[in-house]
Amino acid sequence: MAYNAAMKNPHPRKHILLSLIAILICLNALSAIAAPTNVLFILVDDMGWTGPACYGSDLHETPNIDGLAAQGMRFTNAYAASPICSPTRASILSGKHPARLNMTTWHEAAVERQSHKGDKPLAPPLTEPHLGLQYLTLAELFKGAGYTTAHIGKWHLGDSEHYPEAQGFDINIGGTHWGAPRSFFYPYAAWRDKGNGEMEYRYVPGLGFGKEGDYLTDRLTDEALNVLDQVHDQPFFLHMAYHNPHTPIEGKPELVEYYKQKIKEGMTHNNATYAAMIHSLDENIGRLLAKLEEHHIADNTLVVFFSDNGGFDQVREGEVVTTQVPLRSGKGSLYEGGIRVPLIIKWPGITTANTTSDTPVISTDFYPTFMELLQTKSTQKIDALDGINLKPLLENSDITLDREDLFFHYPHYYFNTTPVTAIRSGDWKLIEYTQDNKVELYNLKDDLAESNNLAQTQGDRVKALQQKLHAWHKGVNAQFAVPNDEYKP
Question: Which of 72, 110, 161, 165 could form a disulfide with 129 if both were Cys (CB 3.0 to 4.6 A apart)?
Answer without folding.
Answer: 110
